[in-house]
Amino acid sequence: MLCLRRLHSFLGILTTLSPHYCSVPLSPKPPTLQFSMASLSEAKLPAASPKLLFRQLFEKESSTYTYLLADVGHPDKPALLVDPVDSTVERDLKLVKELGLKLTYALNTHCHADHVTGTGLIKGKVPGVKSVISKASTAKADLHVEAGDKIFFGNLFLEVRATPGHTFGCVTYVTGDGPDQPQPRMAFTGDTLLIRGCGRTDFQGGSSQQLYQSVHSQIFTLPKDTFIYPAHDYKGFTVSTVGEEIQFNPRLTKDEPTFQGIMENLNLPYPKKMDIAVPANLVCGLQDLV
């Protein structure tokens, strides 16, 4: 009984002290426990939550990159291809089949001058696939997109940004911004922004002034850790970031007048396949069938 009375007396003293003092022993979960509980809750996400599958593919003759993206957290595993090339369509579709994906879209960043797009061939081989290109390109496609449009595949999406300059119809496709979208973000810049370079601006309605403004307003404003995936590379690079290009791009780090002077004095040769590729790409890569 004496011990019990002393305990009651001690508890009475505690209640007269600062509440901050009393709160210390009442905190039951140390930080390590809270962290592991958070990890457990993340592990219990539903099977239908977005999960990006990404593959970068290369066509060596034109040094073109094709990109495969899919939401493999979705039951249907919907997928899309960005900038497919006609000569590698069989390879790309074989990979789609091997991975158990359902191809829904075949996108072009612009009307290419150095290769024929594979979108038309893909549509003929995989019923239901929709071809996509910008409305400004004036090329044929199932879907014509404009700035601000979103292209959904499962619970993931690509945002469309108008980035003219290489051609008047160039767009950049950027992975979505949100807690359920891939982070860091990814920008598929076509020929507008290359790794440590940019596309030429001397044909197809090109404009060095437009390209400079497109990159600085639509791409360089993305988070600096955003990955840059161009349509081409000629030096063995595969990926860059917005932050890298802001710092190291030898053309686009210059002021606009200097940039325009650089672009006007490139003296590049006429594209070898332009007379074949551009007419074909204006009809979804199916010029011969037309």
Automatic annotation (TrEMBL):
TM annotation in the entry: none
Keyword Protein biosynthesis: no
Gene Ontology BP terms: glutathione metabolic process; hydrogen sulfide metabolic process
Enzyme class: oxidoreductase
First and last residue of the signal peptide: 1-22
All copies of domain Metallo-beta-lactamase, residue ranges: 63-232
Name under which the protein is recorded: persulfide dioxygenase
Subcellular location: Mitochondrion
Organism field: Acorus calamus (Sweet flag)
InterPro entries linked to this entry: Metallo-B-lactamas, Mito_Persulfide_Diox, POD-like_MBL-fold, RibonucZ/Hydroxyglut_hydro
Known catalytic reactions: S-sulfanylglutathione + O2 + H2O = sulfite + glutathione + 2 H(+)
EC number per UniProt: 1.13.11.18
Family statement drawn from the similarity comment of this UniProt entry: Belongs to the metallo-beta-lactamase superfamily. Glyoxalase II family.
Keyword Nuclease: no
Annotated Gene Ontology cellular component terms: mitochondrion
Lineage, highest ranks first: Eukaryota, Viridiplantae, Streptophyta, Embryophyta, Tracheophyta
SUPFAM superfamilies to which the protein is assigned, alphabetical: Metallo-hydrolase/oxidoreductase
The protein's required cofactors: Fe(2+)
